[in-house]
Design brief:
Layout: E1 9-13, E2 16-20, E3 34-35, H1 42-59, E4 63-75, E5 81-91, E6 96-105, E7 115-123
Signal peptide: 1-31
GO molecular function, one term: cysteine-type endopeptidase inhibitor activity
Domain Cystatin: 40-120
Length: 124
Amino acid sequence: MMRRSPSPVLLPLLGVTLIVAAATLPAASHAAWVEADVNKDGVVKQVAQFAVLVYGLAHRKEITYVDVVSGETQAAVGGGTNYKLIVVAAKADGDTAQYECLVWGVPGSRSDTWKLHRFKKIRS
């Protein structure tokens, strides 16, 4: 939810009129993280596949999605959903590792509106 900035305030000061306006800042998210059912929620699996694909393309790594181990979701400020996932991905040589990823997106929206914020190896 965005806080609205107040209307500009005009302050006469020594014959000069100053315009003071507060910046509009997003409110901090106070929504709780909720455990996702990675076995039943198809969106979570798609988000995990998206994270692996985007990471591989951005870093020119041959990496493929294997599985999603666990996940949590959180309602994001301004709409959309944050996804905090633990995924398993395989390198070209077949070695697998677990990665923690953080993705923001709006289910049902175009793929170019989704954002991968973090993709960090946590276990080989």
